[in-house]
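Sample 3 of the quickstart, ligand pyridoxal-5'-phosphate:
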Amino acid sequence: MKYNFDEIIDRRNVGAVKWKGYDEIIPMWVADMDFKAPEEIIEAIKSRADEGTFGYTYLNKQYYNAIINWVEKRHGFKIEKNWIYSTPTIVSALYWLIQTFTEVGDKIIIQTPVYHRFKGAIEDNGRMVLENPLKELEGKYYMDFENLESNIDSKVKMIILCNPHNPVGRVWSKEELIRLGEICLKNNILVVSDEIHSDITFKGYKHTPFASLGNEFAENSITCISPTKTFNLAGIQVSNIIIPNENLRKKFDNTMKLNAMGDINIFGIIGLIAAYEKGEQWYREMLYYIEENYNYMREYIEKNMPMIKVTKLEGTYLAWVDFRALRMNSKELKRFLSEEVKVAFNEGQLFGGNGEGFQRINFACPRKILEEALFRLNIGINNCKTWSEDV
Ligand SMILES: Cc1ncc(COP(=O)(O)O)c(C=O)c1O
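Result:
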């Protein structure tokens, strides 16, 4: 390996959200990595900083080509330049998409457990959440198409799809996406496909961009992508919203105008170009490393703490782990993990009511940190008197 993912970096003094306030506790929650970004990106940013002028900067051809080439090479989806809107973050874009394509009081579908800011974006904008809970079958999650169809009414205008799915780690198959897409076409429901995790898939799984499944699907969808999860760049804020449909673009243009959305910041531009043009080797090694971390975690837990269950992941660096056998309510589980085990995960119910009893564990960290967290968990759980297989 050219890059050293084992390096332990102290992120406490750089304002890292993940590490804020944690001294004794190992934080494994918010979705960024404890790895350094690729040297190629660091160099590109340094050299641009050395140049010394930071005035208004347009998005040049190289920027657009970097996105187009990366997405075509990785996912076989051919994007045209004029489909691309750059926004600082995907969450900000979700707010603008909801404002543009739905009205106050409309319903928007999300499939829980799912990234919690979908719900926030819908409710903050006065729209209504229509939950279509995922179905769990022998530790794997599926979309519930029957439930979805039976709950659609004329108020439903949009679905926010998480593809691949945070936190259950599904890389949705073509068949699943086609079935969903057909239901949405039949009912005039716009598909917003958040594909921020699309590059992070494990061996044997391939991401399918929703919009690549045919013209009708492309015209009825908006895709959100970003190099920030893939290359650990969340702090430089750069995302891209892909809108193939001209009518939808006109409406979104207007929202951008009303919000005086200008170009994104220089280091977002430089970081994205360096990532997509020069980051491939780092990316491949990172994928290998995190999949090994996942395998290690799963095997360790299976061997030492068989009462807790790790959902089989197909992608992302966020494990979805079932702690229900401990028979603790969410308050007790939180206290147990933070005060006795001394780790910080995300509580499952953050992602929807059906996440109760689960924890989301971010394993994108040096192996030693993961080993220490699992060691602590092992001691804590094996001393814990409440667990029972009978749940
Ligand atoms: C599905 C999903 N969308 C969006 C985001 C956040 O993206 P951004 O930082 O660009 O708002 C996350 C972060 O974890 C995520 O998991």
